[in-house]
Amino acid sequence: MVKDTIGQFRLMGFIEGGSLLVLLFIAMPLKYAAGIPEAVRIVGSLHGFFFILYLFVIAFVTIKIKWSFIWVVSSIAVAFIPFGNFILDRYLVKSSYTRQ
Question: Which of these, 62, 56, 24, lies nearest to 43 by C-alpha position?
Answer without folding.
Answer: 24
